[in-house]
Amino acid sequence: MIEVNAPVTMSDVARAAGVSTATVSRVVNGHYGVSARTVAQVRSAIEQLGYESSLVATSLRRSRTNVLGLVAHSFQSYTAEVLKGVMKALSRSGFDLIIYANSDLYGSYSEGWEQRHLTRLSGTLTDGCIVVTPWGDFRTRTPVVAIDPVRGSTAPSVISDNLTGATTAVEHLLGLGHRRIGFIAGRDSLASAWSREEGYRAALTAAGVPVDPTLIGRGDFNPESATPLARVLLQRPDPPSAIFAASDGMALKVLEVARELGFSVPGDLSVVGFDNIPESALTQPGLTTVDQSMYQLGYEAARMLKSLVTGEWDEPSQIVLPTSLVVRDSTAPPKSAARP
Amino acid sequence: MIEVNAPVTMSDVARAAGVSTATVSRVVNGHYGVSARTVAQVRSAIEQLGYESSLVATSLRRSRTNVLGLVAHSFQSYTAEVLKGVMKALSRSGFDLIIYANSDLYGSYSEGWEQRHLTRLSGTLTDGCIVVTPWGDFRTRTPVVAIDPVRGSTAPSVISDNLTGATTAVEHLLGLGHRRIGFIAGRDSLASAWSREEGYRAALTAAGVPVDPTLIGRGDFNPESATPLARVLLQRPDPPSAIFAASDGMALKVLEVARELGFSVPGDLSVVGFDNIPESALTQPGLTTVDQSMYQLGYEAARMLKSLVTGEWDEPSQIVLPTSLVVRDSTAPPKSAARP
DNA sequence: ACTGCAATCGTTATCGGTTACGTTTCCAGG
DNA sequence: CCTGGAAACGTAACCGATAACGATTGCAGT
């Protein structure tokens, strides 16, 4: 049954136990200076009334709350994976997690809200935050760890080795014989997008293949942003024989467009993604991609934040996680392996 | 740059603007009774100092916070889909969302924590909560909407038409000629699990096929719970020709086990799931399943909670959403269509 | 100039806890 | 019996904001 009114406060408990709220507080927090008899009385009163301390009131008065926050700008597969890693790291650690999501997911991308919510939370509700958004930096009074930070950020962060990953991916395509390789970039404010493009350029240059700017589409990591770009690339009179997309979400959209335009994959077109989200293993054909463990990203970020909060962090403030190429069915040698 | 210390409070603003905190509060909340000149002063002070009101302090004092909560016991695809629907419904509604996740995701399933967190949040931080957990009911002072509630719950809730959905699924298998149909049940505390099993039994009975208890495995909606059950069913000397799993997560595990044991799907074994999570469309073969829009579930729950909070709800307290069968590639007639 | 009513703004109690500090109780030691 | 000091507990200030209430001011009407 739901009882709509059950505002049991600490003073209710105090009254029931015949003591002051101060004593109840001491019992609840296991502080020193309460006789065993009184503790028992208070405990039983708490039990009877079903009292739980208010998170809000506690947060307001205390500096430490043992609650960490996660602020994300959207909830794609990427974020969900990160979330699992974070929860794993926090498991049995004594920290709880609050995820703050704004209600404008599909609305206007108001750049300011992360900062707004961060300041509203920090210093009160949460002891620290993990942010995973395409914007930054953030001013807070509590530690912040960024996952995939903006370019040039010096804040504590966790990031994949995007440069190596992207280089490997393009080298894989080059190794298959591809020379005209399209690229769909991510949101350029992010360090990851930048590094992945760097890797693309570096691999081409190292192989003596000139970088053709008209083969580069400017996406923003949002899957939908890739659709028109893929259409443009594939409807050219001279379409590329392979496309490297800076994220799996975008790569999957490339597959969609390819199917729609009658390209067979990997026959007519090879596609490589980046991220290795769960869907990439399941799609048909399986997507060749660069694995960055988003789970691990979340796990490390949470571990880092935890120690930052407790003040026992001594490792460098930027963690770089390795990536690895996962070859599936979306890549093959081009039909005409040789071309100027 | 991150400034670690920026505790700008309302009284800082008040001091800077040369007014009282009450006036600042009035300006912030757009209340009546402040001259245009004062508003301008306060606004500029807020701007200069970068002030944001503390969510916690506001929550403590106010009855309404315009923040809704979501309490979930795990974060599988199911929850992620629900989440998207919730966010969509809350988009541009003036409500923010806080997701409370305990850190024991993989640890002991301590049944009490949802109640604990619910009381810690309700009446202070949040105006109401959506709960999606296999336990209930909950005592709170603010409205609660349950998604897929426990059996016998009378609380406001949103649920799919599980009975019809399950019946249709089994009728589909019967129509293909299957007679030995296995079933992997969900957590029996949930109304949905109950209804789906009911549908399974009803369809069989209506077709004159006796229900064989040894063909029923007792899972709990957790994908992992299905693996050993599927193994048992398929390693029998007389395995069923089809398996209906009460959730897609479990059905996908059945596919995994089938592959492992050398069953071809749908050649040797037909598999049907329930939920239609995104993965089901991508897996190979595509999973035939009963579509319940988890997105819609979340959307409706949020819509309901919103009106409950504002006190303008007049529809029934239980919403039932339709389901529909999605036939993909995991079902086909059995090899020997006729059997006693 | 005087009254009266709005408009404007400050004072203060309050939300539910926490904690510094003060007070009382109790017992050991002199 | 008195004193000292630690243990046990209450008092009250405080965290940051809100809102009821009171006080002040300005201006119109007479």
Automatic annotation (TrEMBL), chains A, B:
<dbReference type="InterPro" id="IPR046335">
    <property type="entry name" value="LacI/GalR-like_sensor"/>
</dbReference>
<dbReference type="GO" id="GO:0003700">
    <property type="term" value="F:DNA-binding transcription factor activity"/>
</dbReference>
<keyword id="KW-0805">Transcription regulation</keyword>
<dbReference type="Pfam" id="PF00356">
    <property type="entry name" value="LacI"/>
</dbReference>
<dbReference type="Pfam" id="PF13377">
    <property type="entry name" value="Peripla_BP_3"/>
</dbReference>
<keyword id="KW-0238">DNA-binding</keyword>
<dbReference type="InterPro" id="IPR028082">
    <property type="entry name" value="Peripla_BP_I"/>
</dbReference>
<dbReference type="InterPro" id="IPR010982">
    <property type="entry name" value="Lambda_DNA-bd_dom_sf"/>
</dbReference>
<dbReference type="InterPro" id="IPR000843">
    <property type="entry name" value="HTH_LacI"/>
</dbReference>
<dbReference type="GO" id="GO:0000976">
    <property type="term" value="F:transcription cis-regulatory region binding"/>
</dbReference>
<feature type="domain" description="HTH lacI-type">
    <location>
        <begin position="8"/>
        <end position="62"/>
    </location>
</feature>
<protein>
    <submittedName>
        <fullName>Maltose regulon regulatory protein MalI</fullName>
    </submittedName>
</protein>
<keyword id="KW-0804">Transcription</keyword>
